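Field reference: sequence -> structure
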Amino acid sequence: MIEPSPDLISVVVPVYQEAEALRTFLAAVRHALSLAAISYEIVLVDDGSSDNTWPIIAEEAKASPVIRGFRLSRNFGKEAALCAGLEKARGAAVLVMDGDGQHPASLLPEMIRMWRTSGADIVQAVKRSRGRESFSNKASALLFYVLLQKFSGFDLRGASDFKLMSRKAVDAWLRMGERNVFFRGMTAWMGFTTVQIPFEVAERAQGQSTWSYLKRWKLAITGITAFSSLPLQLVTFAGGLFLIFSIILGAQTIYLKVIGEAVSGFATVILLELLIGSCLMISLGIIGEYLARIYREVKGRPRYLVTESTDTTGAPNHEP
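Structure field:
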């Protein structure tokens, strides 16, 4: 585990293709933290960006000792970049936020104050609303959180990755070594004392979101399969229902045959075969998803690889 500095606050920011707005974002974060009158570091993790994100991070780190930069060898995904940032952070508390400006930097002093006065290990920023999103995005997000709550028992509606974690919470999180990472679900699973603070999702300062439907879908599948085996149990339940249905249908068929009223039903047979075949394919898909995740865990590959770093002396600093 990282040896923490008792007077230091770490801000962990995973970034990907954020060259356009990164300088503006860093200026806002540094201004907010200066108002809190604390020693801090900003840990930027470049998740394999192909634009000028890394040169800007390197330049900012050279100009300011409070900024530390780490560049992953490729795009491992936001969850892996978060893992990297949490492992590199040295603070007694760690703030996690996105680098696109949608998590308001102005909230940071209040989150730090709440952590110090409440005694909680986690200060979680909760969305009042999801901001300006398409109807399909909002509907799919609502469906995901409803399913996750039903399957795992964790209600994460309104939750975000924008949170402050004490060193105790960070160290506990780092002890969870799974490769299929779902950050906000794992922090909820730990069960540490949590206080909430509401916030409004801001508009992106510049650029376009890199969260495609495919990435959202993969994160949703990871979230559900990482915290519940209920989908596998549903496969067994569906098999039981079809067994009962087949017994009833078989008994009816034999009865009609005995009394001489059996009716040929080619269309019915085809429909039943299509229905059962579809259920079998879906069931195999669910089982295959769990097997794939077991396969990734068993291989034991690292969550990420760092190819470049701006770290030199590593001494904590304070900027007024």
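Note: The first strand starts at residue 5 and ends at 15.
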